[in-house]
Design a protein that fits this description.
single chain; TIM Barrel; 13 helices
Length: 338
Amino acid sequence: MLKTGVFFETLRLGTIGIRVPVIQAALSGYSDAPMRKIARRFGCGFALCEVMLDQFVVAVSKRKSRLYFAESDEHPIGAQLMGSEPVQFVRAAQRLADEGFDLIDLNFACPVKKVLGRHRGGYLMSDPKLALDIVAAVRQNLPNAIPLTLKLRKGFDDSPENRTRFFAILDGAINLGICGVTVHGRTVRQRYEGESDWNFIREVKQHLIAKNRPDISVIGSGDLLTAEICVQRLIASGVNGLALARGVIGNPWLFQEVSAVLNGQPKPEPPNLAEQREVLTEHFHLSAKLYGERRAATTMRAFGVKYCLLHPFAEQVRQDFVKVKTADDWNDVLEKWY
């Protein structure tokens, strides 16, 4: 039985303190303002917006949906950047700081083939010099009050050379002024195959303790799909926090469940159909308000097929969600199944 309620501390990322050490990861195509607002409703204290290409941030003339966040209730909020050129990274980071984001996270982890081909994302795990040039340039030009963090994978692959590169990037970035790192326990070559290596994530934390850098927060990532797994990983690895990704797409209740278990409370019962319908309705409303009903209908299809995994007739509900094209279609699915 898990012993909980006394062992965990506030997750600190520079000037930002997060009471429950569980954050929402940056999720391409998902972690927009509506998803983040729903996550906060269930206890998420910090979220990253969708990863943004530096060139997009520099070029966009006004605050588009990817840059949008609610000033009243989304602080603290982080922005994740991806690119390949230090100068462009700097310009984008400065723009995001001006827009009011509280933290900048640099993505050196994305394993998508076309991203790697353009020397972005996970490619930087194979090029410590370029990676550290980017970190140095951004940190030097970002206001001191705005924390800078990294998203890394275990390495570009499992070779000893790439293990060495991982720690060269990590140690170099710490010397340049980052305050935290999120480590996903798969290599870039693995993409999303196999299991996340939490032994390696634990090793990263131990590495920083050995270097007398307990001030650098380590956030673990990968295969965090249930409250029980989340708490077990947090305890066993000794990391400062967890980044929830796939596990909270269509299941924001996971934040509430993890928080309860960490506080030594009984895990809440799974949401009944009425509770699910309430959240599905609210999520669509928020999406329509941001994008308009037409775009919201197509955007929400991807969420619907995840939400329905909690439904007792998940496959039948999924088949109806994938056909949604209008707000009326969405409401029809709710009327039929919820």
